[in-house]
Please model this.
Amino acid sequence: MRKGTACGIVALALTVTGPAVGQERPTRELPVLVSADNVRHDRERSLVIASGNVEISQDARVLLADTVTLNQRTNVVTASGNVSLLEPTGEVYFADYVELQDGMKKGFLRNLRMLFPDESRLAANQASRIAGVRSEMKRAVFSPCKLCEDKPGRPPLWQIKAIKVVHDEKARNIEYYDAFLEMFGIPVAYTPYLSHPDPTVERRSGLLAPRLGSNSQLGFIVGTPYYIDIAPDKDATLEPILTGKQGPVFFGEYRQRLTDGEFEFSGSITKADRTDSTGMREEDQLRGHIRGRGRFDINDTWRWGFNVARASDDTYLQRYGFGFEDVLTTRAFMEGFRQRSYAAVNGYAFQGLRARDKSETTPLILPQIDYNFVSVPNRRGAYWTLDTNILSLSRDEGADSRRLSFKGGWHLSHTGKSGNVFNLSAVTQADLYFVNDVADPAGPDGSFDGVTGRIFPQLALDWRYPLVREIGGARYLVEPVAALIVGPNGGNPDDIPNEDSQAFEFDDADLFSLNRFPGLDRVDSGQRLDYGLITGLYDHRGRSLTAFLGQSFRFREDTDFAVGSGLRDRLSDFVGRVHLSPGRGLDLLYRFRFDKDGLEPRVNELTMAAGPPALRLNLDYIFIDETAGTAGFGDREEITVSARSQINEYWAARAYGRRDLTEGGATLSTGFGLIYEDECFFLSADIRRSFTRDREIEPSDTVLFRVVFKHLGEVRI
Model:
């Protein structure tokens, strides 16, 4: 170490840690570390002068300057030339001239520039530091926006100028007196007083951005949310919402984390008019909703939780903008995971929100118990599986069902030397039912009450033979696949109710499944041969083109499948898919089901994403022939197109449209939006049109503006 530096450390330590003039008794302070190129001691004036790369640190504060002078009589430190003061909380002060005392916690700064940890900036002509936790500034300006690199003298996108600014580091708050909000250097708003948390604050109680809007049915809408920071592990939000044509709505949300989990609840309540399912208008009805979820760990194996979703009536959520679901599901559960097994106990309650839904026929499931086990494969690759299920389903009107189900299987996989892959499975499902009011033409009064069941074994052998060849640096795959599945006929007697296998859809994903019904109430009986061909082209850049085509052949017809399902006849419809991914600019997936006789399309699904960020297009198209869908709906054909354009680094535009393409169909919804976003400011403008009609829900237009000033908050109109 240079002699000058060493002397400086000793001199400054003696000076700063000694008692100040006028003190009655000395105070013990933290030691001071000093480094400088040169140190000079003026004994006549009791000054210690350090110059050249001066660095002084005390109590996690660091002062950097070209020249620092310490007055031994007054204990005042002055610094000039490239002065920087680094605070323990992360803020950095830059100034032309600084006077500090009391362990550098108190003093005066001239031409201050302050940098927060998130790169927000605050500048002032002069500032006073008080007790190391408070700064009072005159003629100050604050902005989180970055300056233009090419023209740093140009004003930022927005900034706040004030005659006086107070930064309370202990309360982590910034206050402005006689403040102007400027956009591009032009004043756009004035307030005599403004306060907001400083950039180090993550959350704090207070008013959030108001919500302003208009709706043709509700009139004007004004929401004023208030956020409550209860504790580090819990918070709440309360929001009264005023409407022009109906009464006020009160919305609330509560969230909390625990040592073993978390939970949250939200809900609303109002008193307003509504239209019931018969079209009758009811005035001043109590309406509202509640949602909640929770997850809690019991130990390393078990956890429990819940999901709650209920509404006072069918149209409340959609009318007030709280959701667009057709069915609300409430669930309570406990589940466990251990090695290769899984167990769960569930309870479900449903609320249908469609006009045809009736609460009397809506089922209640309590309980549903599942256990699934997969053994460790032996040295030959064989393993066992066991699936058990206990279900109790009841309703006020209609069939009740209690089910006990066991499904055990033995599986073996083998790969031959030539590349042939075989999988052999032997599975048996045993079901025992206790039922009431099940529709059965052979029963008395056309229904059945009592005990029923079945034992249903299946044997399956599937085979595949992947063939790969190099073509011009790319790999070409051809893979024939086939499966022979054998089981008894007639595994679905009329006295077994069908509760969990009604939503059936035959496609390429379930062609080779042992049971192509989605649940346990129906089994895929009989003998069949499934076959198909997989092809693919892959290159070293990750680009690919894959395709699949398959069909199923039954040894006898199966009336368990509905007419139009594609599986009722001995020879099924053709199912397949084509997936094209030539690079980041395009991703296309086409799935289909063609009639086996005339190759007419029964189901067409197309999903596409194309284009660079400058213009990214997304398309979703679906067509379902009336014979392939649920009876009574006719043909269904719909297309949704959306686009997003990243115009430049900050600006983007988006648009979407959804249309019913069936005969007599119409546009369902449209929208357009414009977005600006940078590090300190967000602006979006959206125009939406909905053509939905459902009892009291009428077509409506929505215009929404959202403006976010970093640290100041958000405004939505």
